[in-house]
User: Which sequence fits this backbone?
């Protein structure tokens, strides 16, 4: 049997088991383990079936080669669910997949739930969109699967707005249906009293410089979900990212500051405009672009790159494009704040 046939047979067997009741969702992850993406009840049929198959005792070197071929072949969703399925088979398979699958910063791909808290790619923006449900006060974030917004996209995160006497909370979850703080898929919240605040990891100002590094978590930590300090959004000036309990708390280095990108005068339209490159089609006070502020140091080429842009394209439909050094979770939280305070436009 040729090596190509081995890979095809392996992929077919995993797919066959998946169709029998094993559903893989990027959004279902347990907080304590970064790559455990399925509930035990759902994963057991797959594990039991593969233990009885010819793949159970495959030599490690051959197994690694096969899994690498699958990871390279399934580069986009929904086929990439096979990569997630491989990581959910058993500990040895999961360990290999954790080594093979690179972070979004290096690969430009969102694979496991922890990818949503890791910095985006350096060379381009990941294109996402947000759907708002006014009736239920919920917001759903999707990864765009094509340039058109007609597809359903790949579900990433969900948030529910909770109004309180003194503040407004947005509970953010990996589950599209259960956004309660007590659920196993709760990963953070956005809180706003008179001015919106956001909970996120520290990002040093040097992260945007050549060779700079941004925090890249490798697992969801139970202790950190409710220990993040509240971070104020300065409505008209900039956005500051800090975390006193984060890994950089002992450093004196300044934190990354983002500001609104200055619009340019359009001679033909006779107005000030921002170039969203076709990703925003409806004029709205919620539309914004964020770039690195001069407060981070001498202005350079890196300061001109749009780190996050958000804009309206239809009724209750918005695009969200982000890149390094922020994560999908951080970008989503910033965009959620725009629904209440219009931080980038006041």
Assistant:
């Amino acid at each position: 049997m040729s090596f190509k046939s081995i890979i095809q047979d392996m992929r077919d067997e995993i797919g066959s088991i998946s169709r029998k009741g094993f559903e893989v969702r990027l959004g279902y992850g347990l907080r304590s383990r970064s790559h455990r993406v399925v509930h035990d009840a759902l994963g057991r049929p797959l594990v039991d079936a593969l233990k009885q198959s010819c793949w159970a005792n495959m030599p490690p070197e051959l197994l690694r080669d096969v899994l690498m071929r699958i990871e390279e072949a399934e580069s986009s969703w929904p086929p990439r669910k096979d990569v997630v399925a491989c990581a959910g088979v058993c500990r040895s398979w999961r360990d290999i997949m954790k080594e093979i699958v690179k972070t979004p910063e290096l690969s430009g791909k969102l694979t496991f739930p922890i990818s949503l808290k890791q910095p985006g790619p350096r060379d381009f923006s990941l294109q996402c969109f947000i759907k708002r449900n006014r009736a239920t006060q919920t917001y759903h974030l999707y990864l765009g699967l094509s340039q058109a917004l007609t597809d359903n996209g790949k579900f990433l995160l969900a948030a529910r707005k909770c109004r309180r006497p003194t503040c407004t909370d947005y509970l953010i979850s990996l589950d599209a249906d259960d956004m309660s703080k007590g659920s196993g898929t709760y990963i953070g919240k956005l809180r706003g009293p008179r001015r919106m605040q956001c909970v996120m990891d520290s990002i040093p100002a040097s992260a945007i410089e050549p060779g700079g590094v941004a925090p890249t978590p490798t697992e969801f930590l139970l202790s950190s979900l409710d220990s993040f300090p509240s971070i104020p959004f300065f409505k008209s000036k900039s956005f500051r990212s800090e975390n006193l309990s984060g890994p950089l708390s002992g450093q004196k280095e300044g934190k990354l500051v983002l500001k609104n990108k200055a619009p340019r005068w359009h001679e033909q339209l006779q107005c000030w405009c921002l170039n969203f490159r076709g990703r925003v089609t409806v004029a709205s006070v919620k539309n914004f672009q964020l770039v690195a502020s001069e407060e981070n140091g001498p202005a350079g080429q890196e300061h001109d790159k749009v780190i996050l842009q958000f804009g309206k394209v239809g009724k209750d439909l918005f695009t969200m494009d982000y890149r390094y050094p922020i994560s999908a979770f951080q970008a989503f939280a910033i965009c959620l704040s725009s629904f209440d305070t219009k931080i980038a436009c006041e």
Remarks:
- Residues 126-341 form a domain with the Tubby Protein; Chain A fold (CATH 3.20.90.10).
- Residues 20-42, 193-201, 226-252, 342-346 have pLDDT under 50 and may be disordered.
- The two ends are 65 Å apart (CA to CA).
